[in-house]
Amino acid sequence: MSVLKFDEGNFEEEVLKEKGKVLVDFYADWCGPCRMMSPIIDEIAEEMGESVKVGKINVDNNQELAIKYDVMSIPTIMVFENGNPIKTFIGVTDKNEVLEVLK
Amino acid sequence: MYDVIIIGAGPAGISAGLYTIRANLKVLILYKDQSALEKTDRIENYYGFEKGISGQDLYEAGIKQAKNLGVEVKKEEVTNIQFGENNQYTVMTENQNYNTKTVIFATGNKKNIPKIKGIKEFEGKGISYCAVCDGFFYKNKDIAVLGNGRYAISETNALIHIANHITILTDGEKPPEIRAENVDIDTRKIREIKGDKKIEEIEFEDSTKMKTDGLFVALGVAGSNEFAKKLGILTQKDRIVVNENMETNIPGIYACGDCTGGLLQVSKAVYEGAKAGLQAIRYLRK
Ligand SMILES: Cc1cc2nc3c(=O)[nH]c(=O)nc-3n(C[C@H](O)[C@H](O)[C@H](O)COP(=O)(O)OP(=O)(O)OC[C@H]3O[C@@H](n4cnc5c(N)ncnc54)[C@H](O)[C@@H]3O)c2cc1C
Fold first, then answer.
1. Does pLDDT of A6 surpass 80?
2. A24, A55, B192, B201: most buried, per Cβ within 10 A?
3. B208 closest CA partner among B227, B228, B194
4. Start-end ranges of CATH 3.50.50.60 in chain B?
5. How confident is the model at residue B250 (pLDDT cuts 50, 70, 90)?
6. Which is nearest to B98 in space by CA: B114, B116, B80?
């Protein structure tokens, strides 16, 4: 499945109301390490196919969401299940570590 | 513009320098003190020295050897590395910026994580190791920087125009030279970092406390871990992750020697330095 764009407008519908697991990547355009995480996120989306929803949140435009989930460092990768965060990775993270939580 | 900048002049960095200079590339090695070799009394298990050799002598001989072959070697501490245009990098020292097409990390094995209670627990919850990455989250807040060297000053400068107020905590070390309206220096020794869900206050040995919204750790000389965080290089347990060709996850960035973990010995550092150098050559010729 392709990587979606989450924002304050669609977050409830796309992430919180989703029953299955959702992977959320908090990033910003000016953040160098985020650019290194981005291809890893793309690969994860590809490998997980339809089974997991994957999306990105630009913290510059969605500061409320960053504050709500105590994001104080980017990239931060959060996995949600039934609307609750079940796992957080801070910084560029190995693909397999993330996949393990999603499977 | 350099073809290759190597950070570190220990066995790994020098070895990478020897291979890349032989390929007629423009090579710069930047180093500081603190090679593991300088702490080594005698090396007796490395090839070719019938009576062994002192670590200090081996270190100095390596630097001379690289210079003799035409490598530029400068004693300057690297405080930051940034992405430039067209897949290039800018390596920053206190007074200079150098542009390069590739970077080889040979920074050794030092760890800059202080043994202060709470420091691990609040990582990413107010404790940060990268001012340029995380400064954004501390707009107009009161924060602290832990450290007292050039690196701490460099990190402080990256935060000065973002934060409301910065306290440089030296944790008992001598204060650095820095003057800015919104920066104070506090030399008290730290006992513990406290908070609930995120960092809230710092408790000193004398039981006094200071409220803070964040703490940027910038101790000593920045090492591979700090640079990895700034660039987004994958690490595992404080080691840089490389493949068999010493490539990191970022094209044009390599790592070798003690900073990649495994066998912490001169022979392995020399081997990996050669590998990293050869791979950089291959990348530049593409
Ligand atoms: C006490 C002791 C005994 C040892 N005994 C042996 C032995 O008998 N045999 C053996 O084979 N090995 C021994 N070793 C290990 C050996 O010293 C190391 O494996 C080897 O030095 C690693 O080489 P390196 O090039 O990876 O890193 P290092 O030699 O540690 O060099 C790191 C380089 O990076 C530079 N650097 C780091 N950060 C920066 C920065 N921000 N800016 C600029 N420069 C920077 C430093 O100045 C230095 O030049 C010993 C180590 C110790 C501590």
1. yes
2. A24
3. B194
4. 2-110+222-285, 127-217
5. very high
6. B80
Other CB atoms within 10 Å distance of the CB of residue A92:
25
- The pLDDT assigned to B50 comes to 95
Q: How far apart are CA B267 and CA B252, in angstroms?
A: 24
The model carries a pTM of 0.93
Neighbours of B210 (CB within 10 A): 15
CB B270 within 8 A of CB B37: no
| Band (A22; pLDDT cuts 50, 70, 90) | very high
Strands (E) located in A16-52: 21-27
> Is the CB of residue B269 below 6 angstroms from any atom belonging to ligand 1?
yes
On whether the CB atoms of residues B26 and B3 are closer than 8 A, the answer is: yes
Superfamily for the B127-217 domain: FAD/NAD(P)-binding domain (3.50.50.60)
**Picking from A89-98, B28-37, B111-120, which range would have the lowest pLDDT averaged per residue?**
B111-120
Distance from residue B223's CA to the centre of ligand 1 (Å): 12
**Which residues of A are marked as active site?**
31, 34
Q: Which residues of B40-54 are buried (b: 16+ CB within 10 A; e: fewer)?
A: eeebeeeeeeeeebe
Q: For A84, phi and psi rounded to 5 degrees?
A: -115, 140
Cis omega (within 30 of 0) on the bond before A75?
yes
The pLDDT score that the predictor gives to residue B110 is 82
Q: How far apart are CA B226 and CA B203, in angstroms?
A: 25
Q: Is the pLDDT of residue A1 over 80?
A: no
User: Pick from B128, B136, B232: which is nearest to A28 by CB?
Assistant: B136
Give B85's pLDDT tier (boundaries 50, 70, 90).
Answer: confident
Does the CB atom of residue B66 touch ligand 1 within 6 A? no
CA B272 to ligand 1: nearest atom = 26
CA distance A56 to B251: 23
Q: Given an 8 Å threshold on Cβ–Cβ distance, is A90 in contact with B214? A: no
Contacts of B197 in chain A (CB under 8 A): 70
Q: How many angstroms separate the CA of residue A51 from the nearest CA in chain B?
A: 26
In which band, very low, low, confident or very high, does the pLDDT at B195 lie, cut at 50, 70 and 90? Answer: very high
- Which is more confident, B242 or B114? B242
